[in-house]
């Protein structure tokens, strides 16, 4: 008997089996479920400041790190929008291009870097502390000039009044406690709560301070009324979270 015939007889379960026509059986492999694994782009990110009016990133883009911050969103009414237009007209005297801010908000944290796997637990912690925080009335009473730490932009902003400041301090203290748990930078030691409304490229703080009285006079005559703050927001990369106050 040939070696091939012997092999066929050994693998057969009966004398009738035909090794020349019966295909071998293979065990199907079970592929792993990859749906829960986050996918990140392999393309290298290149920042182009010409695409956003000369603005420069505060820190470089790193894959897997999510720029995040906590804030209060402000929805401008007609009187508020008229105020911005008046201030922008006044600023035309300094002969510098002046831009309206993309959105109007009051920061309750610095911009922090949050890793992807921490997003769920971080936002849950915010939900816990803010669900026991009361809503309040917010009022602005002063125009102030700020410059960012990199001296790349100067902001014209509205500073909150004394009463609003106390409520905001209470919220930022709670947020700081969470940031400490995650070993992230806390808010400024003596924060000046404000809402930026206009900005200019570069450090133009000295030039704008010279017309600050005129800007405050415009605010005084506009007499913005208080608004009720009942929500706090958090932006993490391209994700948005909103928390209701009691």
Automatic annotation (TrEMBL):
Residues the record marks as active site: 105, 194
InterPro entries: Usb1 (IPR027521)
Top EC class, one word: hydrolase
Subcellular location: Nucleus
GO molecular function annotation: lyase activity; poly(U)-specific exoribonuclease activity, producing 3' uridine cyclic phosphate ends
Keywords from the named record: Hydrolase, Lyase, Nuclease, Nucleus
Gene3D superfamilies attached to this UniProt entry: Cyclic phosphodiesterase
The protein's Enzyme Commission number: 3.1.4.-
GO biological process, one term: U6 snRNA 3'-end processing
HAMAP family, per database record: USB1
Protein function: Phosphodiesterase responsible for the U6 snRNA 3' end processing. Acts as an exoribonuclease (RNase) responsible for trimming the poly(U) tract of the last nucleotides in the pre-U6 snRNA molecule, leading to the formation of mature U6 snRNA.
Family: Belongs to the 2H phosphoesterase superfamily. USB1 family.
Name recorded for this polypeptide: U6 snRNA phosphodiesterase
Species, as recorded: Galleria mellonella
Lineage: Eukaryota, Metazoa, Ecdysozoa, Arthropoda, Hexapoda
Gene: LOC113521198
